[in-house]
Design brief:
It contains 22 helices and two strands. The chain is mainly α.
Amino acid sequence: MSTTSTTHSGQPASRHHTIAPGEIAIGVIIGRTSEYFDFFVYAIASVLVFPKLAFPNHDALAGTLWSFAIFALAFIARPIGLALFTLFDRRYGREIKLTIALFMLGGSTVSIALLPDYATVGAWSGTLLCILRFGQGIALGGTWDGLPSLLSLNAPAGQRGWYAMIPQLGAPLGLIVASGLFAFFYTTLSPADFLEWGWRYPFFVALAINVVALFSRLRIVATPEYAELFQTQELQPTPIMETVKEQGRNIIIGAFAPLASFALFHMVTVFPLAWVVLETKESPAQFLFIEIVSALFGVVAIAASGPIADRFGRRNLIAVCAMGIAVYSGYAPQLLNAGNTGEIAYMIAGFVLLGLTFGQVSGAVNSAFPIQYRYTGAAMTSDLAWLFGAGFAPFVALGLASFFGLAASGVYLLSGAVCTLMALWVNLEGIRLGTPGSRD
């Protein structure tokens, strides 16, 4: 697409620029990887660090459950952050909104790196962790830049599935880097040094990555060419209440359609690490290496989801994967409880299923919105889906497994698959009745 851009002063720009989907994709991958790196750094610390740092007066299980409860605060805060930063977006523009949100995210993250322990400040350690985690969630609600939607709208014909999967690559890439950092410090430091200062370094790295991601994304969204492209594609923020009023049905379906994917997301990342640490004598670093290798399978599966979806349809792929997750939920507990070989099978099978469905679920949900509501509608469904499907997943899964047996965690995963299939069925019925929605 070629654009004739103008400067902010209203004068014609001196250059013309052809905006290729590949250029948008670079900004999307960098932005998503930085967000997921933040996510996984906190998630891993919730298992390896915070139970001992902030809740040493509880036993290991109770301390981890407290950590997972605080982990969920960010997902509760995200919709609040979205509403707040949508006002900034509408009044001051996307660049200012992104700058404030990413610096707030970086500030909250680096403050966690400086968190005092329970021995120093008592219960304030846990309280400060709550405040900073909530701050991360508020900031994450403002980091939506619309680039994934822009990428989808500019995807070449017949390749929508391929370009829809690109933003999702940030999840396994962020996990690989975060797991690698924690594994390095865990294996090279003594337990005392790791708990005292080693765990803090990944949070400082998160701040640096956020700064790089900020400038990378601003380089794209702040240019006159992209500003004009956002404008011509009608990808502008709409008021929250107006979006809910006009697109409430799509928002609800969009919040429940990814539940199988998002529940599985935590069942192969955060939950198994907690189970291994609490219930086995296996080194956490060893399991982190298993996560890294499995995440590589996830990268391949996400990439494969593109051409598969382009050939057979995104909704069909998501439905088949949801049924696959339902079957997997019946065998997953036995695999996780079957020693090292079982853990590897559990992780690789889980990441393959996750990659295939996670690679397409965001694009399928976003395409249900009319263009004028897609910018805000996509952000709302993403935040609500993470809240319902992922925010409490580690807490619920660990609680069920600890008190009712590991098989109970499989039931939780099965419930997510059922919700996804029901949401897809409701959306399909809406299409048959003439209700607007995604047809791919």
